[in-house]
Amino acid sequence: MIEIGKKNSEIFPPPPQLPFQSSTATVTDKRFLIRREYEIGRDKWNKLQASALAHGFSSLSVLLSAFGEVLGRWSSGSEMTVILLNDSSGHATPEDLFNRMASQPAIPVVFKPVRDENRIEICRRTELQLADSVNRCPATVSSIFPNIAKDSGQDDRQVVVVFSGVLPAFHDSAGTDENMVNNASGSVCDEHHPQEMRMPQVCLHCHVSEHDEEIGITWDVLAELFPLNLPDAMFEVYICLLNWSSEKAWAKQAPDFLPELQRAVREKVNATFVPVKEKLIHQEFFIHAQENPEKEALLWDENGIDRMMTYGELADKALRLAALLSEKGVQQGEAVAVTLPRGPNQVIAVLAVLAAGAVYVPIGVNQPAGRRDRIYRIGGISRLVTDKTEFAVLSTEEKLTVIMTDEADKVSPLPRPVSVNTDALAYVIFTSGSTGEPKGVQIPHRAAYNTILDINTRFSVSASDRVLAVSALDFDLSVYDLFGLLSAGGGIVLLNESTGREALVWLELIRRMNVTVWNSVPALLDMLMIAAGEYGLLPSLRLALVSGDWVGLDLHDRLIKKSQDCRFIALGGATEASIWSNYFEVTSVDPSWSSIPYGAPLTNQCFRVVDRFGRDCPDMVTGELWIGGMGVARGYLGNSELTSKSFINTGENRWYRTGDLARYWSDGILEFLGRADQQVKLRGYRIELGEIEAVLRQYAGISQAVAVISSGTGTQHLVAAVVAGCAPVQVHTVSSVPSNSDSFRNSSREIQSKIAEALIAEILNLAELQNDTGKNLHPGRQLRITDENQSLLQMWLRWLGGRNVITDYDGVLHGGPRIEEVLQYAKTLQRSAVNSNGIIADDPLISSVARRLFQRLDDYRGILSGEISSVVLLDDDILSPESLSSRDSGTIAGIELIAEKIKCISKAAGKPVETALIGGRSGIIAAKLLDMLDPEDISFTLLDSALSMVETAKIHLSSLPHSVNCKRLPEYGVPDQLRYSFDLVLAVNALHRYHDPYQGVAIASLLVRCGGKILALEHCEIMPLAAVTSAVLDRGFADFDHDRRQAYSPMLPAQQWANLFKKAGFNKTSFMPVGDSFTEFIEADCPATRPELDLDCILKFTADHLPPHMLPEKIEILPWLPLSANGKVDRAAVTAVFAFRAEERGGEKPHAGMEQEVAEMWQKLLSSGAIGRKQGFFEIGGDSLLATRFLAGVKEKFGVELSLRQMFELPALFQVASVLESKLMEMKQTMESMEEGEI
């Protein structure tokens, strides 16, 4: 279909978005470098004219509509506008054409491809609309495309396509004015002055002319814009379509004119089908178990001790559990849920379900209860294999049959696995659905086995191989980890739940257990390479399989440096197509690549790249990737409607529509271009976010990039985030001074430990253990401790056990040798707390802390039970971490050292030192530092992530004579005005507060300028009193990285901080103890030659490689990219980084009434301007402390209570207002009913 005749005031679709390889700014010769010519002979031209006349339209419509069809095929079927010119002078030079576009009338022709139209329908619509268009006021190119910017000196123009000709025979239609085209030569309706406008560049000019009853067709092409051979392929198809139209009946649809050479190449690369002996995915494992029962199957670390399970042992345990499943009524083909933590029991359970003839459905232990419940419903699941009854809870009265793994120990094993057909389902993996409803992908045995056999054969995986199982069971890469290696007779090295994302643990296990195969998403291999960068080589690795996301161009070379003989394989596919469907072995990286190619299909699998009408896209044209062959899933469990939309039958073939974007290269290799949902439409242009990301990653100094659309109501912004790559440090000097503080530290540690253990004993009511009767401590029951505080409880119990206060914690506690001593001391401290007197310790700080702890015993119990938020401790003038830090003797001495450094630097430079303090909290530490300095010594900026702290700091520091700024530092980003801006970056007991220790260092490195320094104070170990202060706020450090979480301490020794500074590109680090204290002073120097990312340079680079409509409006340089649970980039978190004006983000204003009242309270709390009704409290800078204050204000103002949980679940302003209105209505109704009762 072609739509023509829009008024000049309307906005036309953009020109054809053809697959260019460069922008006009990089074209060195603006002349047409390619000319292609063809003549339609007299006989064919007469037939074309006769057919046109018979159907009542002009020959122009035939030529023009065919041109539009070809452009549509090479523009992914998108809507577009072509310029039609009446060229009365024959062939036009580029200069003539340029001048003519600037001054003469032009007819905009809008092509909007429609599915399944025949030539009559297409040409008739062209005819009618063309007639309508030329009868309107003529236009110039500048009025058709008004978004062409005025000349700014940049030679980067929008590109257009022009169709022109001199055709007397055009006017042969009975229904068309013979002066149809010539009528367009009237006055031009254009508000713009052509001489002021930047005219577009013509990339393709199709000129047609008639002479001697023949038609000459000429294409002039700006060659440098296009990939090699692409214009020739387009021209070939145009001629084929015209020739077909001269010979065939137009009532039929024209055939698919994919260029023959391209069709032949694709048929060759997709010719992968060979006979395969079909098997069950667990079949070969049980054969190995019989033939070689002593072979190692599973290996894992258990508290530093290597554990192992043989094939024979694993098969026996699996068959015992399979027998138990059969006893519990499990039927062949039944879906059985498996919810177990990582470890050998997880593998046993999966094999048992399969051996029982059933289908395993992995559901992660960390899945929210509501999502587990939906999976049970969708899957019709009635049986669950687990080791924790909590996972069996449903939100309705329905019950699951729960099968506990340890119940199988006394059951006789099945003699052999139950026999099922290879067409039977092997597993169902639930993935996220766009509607929020999980999708259960059904994979038969034969489909998964085909992939497993191919990979094992292609890459010679054998009994001598071992894989590190880094992927979770409910992520489909785990299918190969388990059955790829067990089918080959190899070994699986298992992780546990706490080590699943810990690169240093992976590194150790790879070396210790001789892992040979790596299989993960690229981000996890990247993490491994970062960890290995500090500690050396990975000689055992021989095969690295990466899939599921973009593969960084540098990943191959980094891996080869660590493991010289390792093969690097990039794989692709979908859960719906049995793990993988294609591969590409990387041996070197071509400089022209913007990403690692997707590759070619695996055995018995095939691909198509199709446009939105299901037609095969020509080479270099982006389309949706379809996967066919043996690996295609049966469909989605319990969702026939979604199955019919996602799985397509064409003849004998069945295809899965991936929703991924790709394109074919001329050699048949596929290039992956991201998700279709990453294809966005912005201001009329269809934009591939993946293409923008690929260009950004080519910029020197950028290691990672992600492009997103940040949307407000009615407003969309194209933005991108990048992460700087750290230049390798050639020489990294570390100097240290040994500590002489052992005596002080031992003494202070002991008195603090006695206070902390006494307090914990009181909180947990351990007096019941005094008679050693034992006490059942089932988490969350007798002690009423919430799930989120379980890590804190475990921390306390382990620590008390180490100090002999309790013993034998295995669900039952007993009093230890010191229980009575501790309880007696607790009574002494309680008396001191009540009377506020008595000397508890020589250090007055410790004495005051001890008294306050016991004064707040009830609050501590309320925090553990979830009745009180732990943020109340932040308001305590003694117990808050900031107060404790500011009164700590080591910290005070360290601040004095920092002040002396600043004085020296200022004196040498003769100007104030530009200084930033990260994690500055409410300004107490800052005030101490500034009191030691003259105003001319320092220009000071306090930074903190919590807006409440920043606002308090402004008040706290406002009376000082120094130059002071207080700013909120976003979670991920460093604002432009702060980046590379400071001579000194200070971190006083702040670096350890980040959940990953590198994060604080990375942020500091983006703040400090070249040649600057980072000065940090950190405790060398966690002080015992922190176990009952900061550990409570951080829930036992449950969200920290593995090593610190396992140690129940956020602190790192100074040497580890030095390693992190080296990783961030610092070339010199020194550290020394600060007097008699736990404090260490750390100084890191930033090289004067460190490369710094410049946003203007990055934008200029992108402008050289992308058309104007694809240039990001804003680019943020982030210290790191946030990742999802599966190790992929968390795009939602990246989007949140970009803070546009509140009006744009919030959109609609709050409604009068309760919404307006809530808005006013938020504005006062957050010191914010206008707030939109759909904005969330935490989105606009709120935090838990501010939310607690808001809730207190609500209770005071309205007399009703909201919980902090409700604030997190319903954070938008209109939602909070709605809940308040409901509560007020309930209160009113209650009062009325009480009054009626009194009457």
TrEMBL record:
<dbReference type="GO" id="GO:0043041">
    <property type="term" value="P:amino acid activation for nonribosomal peptide biosynthetic process"/>
</dbReference>
<dbReference type="GO" id="GO:0005737">
    <property type="term" value="C:cytoplasm"/>
</dbReference>
<dbReference type="Pfam" id="PF00550">
    <property type="entry name" value="PP-binding"/>
</dbReference>
<feature type="region of interest" description="Disordered">
    <location>
        <begin position="1"/>
        <end position="22"/>
    </location>
</feature>
<dbReference type="InterPro" id="IPR029063">
    <property type="entry name" value="SAM-dependent_MTases_sf"/>
</dbReference>
<dbReference type="InterPro" id="IPR036736">
    <property type="entry name" value="ACP-like_sf"/>
</dbReference>
<dbReference type="InterPro" id="IPR009081">
    <property type="entry name" value="PP-bd_ACP"/>
</dbReference>
<dbReference type="InterPro" id="IPR000873">
    <property type="entry name" value="AMP-dep_synth/lig_dom"/>
</dbReference>
<dbReference type="InterPro" id="IPR020845">
    <property type="entry name" value="AMP-binding_CS"/>
</dbReference>
<dbReference type="Pfam" id="PF00501">
    <property type="entry name" value="AMP-binding"/>
</dbReference>
<dbReference type="InterPro" id="IPR045851">
    <property type="entry name" value="AMP-bd_C_sf"/>
</dbReference>
<dbReference type="GO" id="GO:0031177">
    <property type="term" value="F:phosphopantetheine binding"/>
</dbReference>
<dbReference type="GO" id="GO:0044550">
    <property type="term" value="P:secondary metabolite biosynthetic process"/>
</dbReference>
<dbReference type="InterPro" id="IPR010071">
    <property type="entry name" value="AA_adenyl_dom"/>
</dbReference>
<feature type="domain" description="Carrier">
    <location>
        <begin position="1149"/>
        <end position="1224"/>
    </location>
</feature>
<protein>
    <submittedName>
        <fullName>Amino acid adenylation domain protein</fullName>
    </submittedName>
</protein>
<dbReference type="GO" id="GO:0016874">
    <property type="term" value="F:ligase activity"/>
</dbReference>
<keyword id="KW-0436">Ligase</keyword>
<dbReference type="InterPro" id="IPR042099">
    <property type="entry name" value="ANL_N_sf"/>
</dbReference>
